[in-house]
């Protein structure tokens, strides 16, 4: 059988070393030798001796998720083999988290990560209980984290002199040490008259970066 489908760039090659790598712009390959973690339902193929199990979040994590709607349904992948992960044909990126780093990510943008990384749901300080995704996932430790994003992300530097304001439905993640809060860009009078639809943003101040996606659309859960 002959086809452009079988071109070299589409073929899955044997892994040279354990861990994750980009299969292509839309998927991540993970050579498992032990354990790793991924969002539930994101595995699209695997080979080898692998077991997939639902990962509990503990009582504290379950309560936070129930109250806030933020969280990440995870599964653990154990054994030896290779697995491929993707989510709704989103663009995939791999982040190396180094010891001492703390990276805040919206749970909807997490695809998979090394088991050496710690994961915790935390309140976005200064943001109160309004505005959408204000309880995000904080990753610490040392390892790799794969993100998935609608479209091509925009990475914006944040400095003490130049704070950045982002739509809470578009934000992907940011340096966890940045100071956060809510910024109101409309007057009360403007909102009463209908406004622009961009009334409140998440403000970020300090020295670091923020990642946003070129979309404000939120995912709709599939009907059961």
Concise account of the structure shown:
The chain is mostly beta strands and 224 residues long. Helix content is 7%, strand content 50%.
The tally of strands reads: 16
Succession of helices and strands: EEEHEEEEEEEEEEEHEE
Large-scale geometry: globular
Determine Rg (CA atoms, Å).
19 Å
Mind describing the biggest β-sheet? 7 strands, antiparallel
The residue fraction in helices comes out at under 10%
pLDDT average, as an integer? 82
Uncertain spans, ≥5 residues at pLDDT below 50? 62-69, 128-133, 187-197, 220-224
What's the tally of helices? 2
- Beta percentage is over 45%
Would you tell me the structural class of the helices and strands? mainly beta
The termini sit apart by 39 Å
Description of the molecule:
- This protein has helices at residues 58-68, 188-192; strands at 19-24, 27-39, 43-55, 74-85, 91-97, 102-105, 110-114, 117-123, 135-141, 143-149, 154-158, 164-166, 171-175, 179-184, 200-205, 208-212.
- The chain is mostly beta strands and 224 residues long.
- Strands 1, 2, 3, 4, 5, 7 and 10 form a 7-stranded antiparallel sheet that branches.
- Strand 1 (19-24) and strand 2 form a beta hairpin.
- The longest helix is centred in the first third of the chain and has 11 residues, at 58-68.
- The N and C termini lie far apart (39 Å).
């Amino acid at each position: 059988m002959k086809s452009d489908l079988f071109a070299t760039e589409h073929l899955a090659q044997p892994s040279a070393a354990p861990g994750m790598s980009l299969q292509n712009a839309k998927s991540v390959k993970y050579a498992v030798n032990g354990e790793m973690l991924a969002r539930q339902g994101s595995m699209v193929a695997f080979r080898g001796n692998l077991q997939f199990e639902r990962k509990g979040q503990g009582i504290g994590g379950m309560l936070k998720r129930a109250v806030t709607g933020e969280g990440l349904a995870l599964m653990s992948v154990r054994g030896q083999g290779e697995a491929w992960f993707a989510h709704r044909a989103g663009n995939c990126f791999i982040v190396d988290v180094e010891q001492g780093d703390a990276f805040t990510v919206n749970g909807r943008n997490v695809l998979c990560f090394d088991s050496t990384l710690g994961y915790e749901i935390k309140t976005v300080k200064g943001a109160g209980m309004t505005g959408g995704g204000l309880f995000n996932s904080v990753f610490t430790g040392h390892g790799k984290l794969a993100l998935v994003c609608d479209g091509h992300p925009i990475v914006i530097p944040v400095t003490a002199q130049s704070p950045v304001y982002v739509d809470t439905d578009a934000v992907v993640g940011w340096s966890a040490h940045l100071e956060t809060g809510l910024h109101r860009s409309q007057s009360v009078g403007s909102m009463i008259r209908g406004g622009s639809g961009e009334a409140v943003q998440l403000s970020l101040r300090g020295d670091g970066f923020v990642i946003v996606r070129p979309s404000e659309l939120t995912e709709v859960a599939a009907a059961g």
